[in-house]
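Retro notes - structure team

What went well: the batch runner handled both jobs without manual restarts.
What didn't: labels got mixed up in the shared folder, which is why I'm recording both outputs here explicitly, each with its sequence directly above its tokens.

Job 1
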Amino acid sequence: MKKYFQIVCTALLPLCASAEISRSEFSPVQLSLAEAQQLAFTRNWDLLAARSGVDAAQAQWLIAKEFPNPTLSAATSKIGSRDSATIDGNNLWSRSYDTIFAVNQLFEIGGKRRDRQDAARQNVLGAKARFLDAKRTLEQGVTRAYVAVLLANENARVLRESAGFMQREQEIAGTRFHAGDLAEADLKQIQVSAGQFILQADAADNAAVQARIALEILLGVNSPKGEVQLADSLEIISSDIATNFSSKAGALRPDVLAAQTDVRAAEANLKLAKAGRIPDPTVSLQFEHNPPGGGPAADTIGIGVSFPLPLWNQNKGAIRAAQAGVEQSRFALEKLRAQMAGDLAGATAGFNEASARLKKYREEIAPRSQSARESVIFKFEKGGASLVDLLAAQRTDNDVRLATAQAMADAANTSADLRSATTAQAERDLNNPN
């Protein structure tokens, strides 16, 4: 897994260098959607935390595979004065003390080590699956944040363009007012409409700043200020959406894969808890040194075994807790499976509706609205249309253009949702050590 991350980071280093972005300072570079996603994959804090989760799970697996260390003990008894000398002498080793050295080794039986390692192995697979799921949701989040910036920019552009139209009509209306061809109330109404469009454009600009800040947070910028500039347009993003989504056979969404590994880990923990009812023996090997003194010299070697008697504690509490853990993991898995099916159905329906709505706006409603507005403007400038007609046509066309921008954003977002809902991973890929 470590090699996999090194390969990913190495592949993305040129992108990071070209973007000239550091955590301490963010340059207002032009980022495409693909570049923003790749940048987030290397810098997003949640994804980095998920990557650390894989390292932590692998460390726990190493711990589970380690064999318990033996213990060494030494004891001396029958300690007397210096008169405890023997025929061997009067140094510490030659006195008539009884000295025992022992080495004790615990042996786990009943499959405890196997069950513990199985649980740890499943936790590693689950951590890898959660990393992939974090990457899946991050890709979706970056797309939505990117589109939100584009939509706010497009809204501001449409509103300022509408304000420009109204200001131009305001100049024409002023000429007609001075010529006595237009009432003062009508002139003021045009001025009010132009001012409203400008205020709405200012609000859209502020929304764009907030959206850029949200995007910069996903990109891992330490001090987000809303300075990121986007290379793609809403028109490009909405025109380049995918229309077919498929996954390889036997693959599942990463969060469902993680839930499956949780079930298997819980089942392994249950086996471990049941195996805990079997006492583990501790084998002892000892050497006893007893120089000649009060009796004959007796250097002996002994072997022994000890184990706890399961009289009062039969590990019932741990077994009950493990059984509850298995049930909870299974419920969580079933919930995620239902959620995956629901997300897929909802994303499909949303994508189909947004695509159809966008097509309708692009091919029918927007061209007709623009044609109607231009016709009314021409008539108004020639005195053949009323102010009410002009304002109605302008507001209708403005609403249509904003709705078209929203339809483009919805199409891009639902495409990202559908891609996220259909992102799948084969479990055999999780077992790949690289």
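Job 2
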Amino acid sequence: MLKKGIMDIRIYYHDTDAGGVVYYGTYLQYLEEARTEFLEKNHLSVESLRERGFLYAVRKCDITYRAPARYADTITCGATLKKVTAAQLVFHQTITHQTTGQLLVEAEVTIVSLTNDFKPTAIPEDLHQKFSGLIE
């Protein structure tokens, strides 16, 4: 298994504010895309998880903005699985400037497992084992 989701994103004008700097909320979208990439690279598509009854949502996001990304930059977004509990996945995520390697954003994102009626529930055992094998 790959154990890491990494993707490059080019910054477009619509990602920025009037000053050409990426709007702070847009980084949450980039982090989500990197987590999806992590799952898919490890043969866990969002659709296949949903079909199994494994729904999830962000429970907590602790994010530190270190430096801005700007229009026309290319950034690298990464996601690694840090911890698995009975009902949660905890990801460590980074966003760096592709050219300079400068750390722009660092986040810890906690995902909670949900039932079809959006109540917290245990991660199915086979998925829990698979996720546990992806911890870096």
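One thing worth noting from job 2: The mean pLDDT is 94.
We'll revisit the folder naming next retro.
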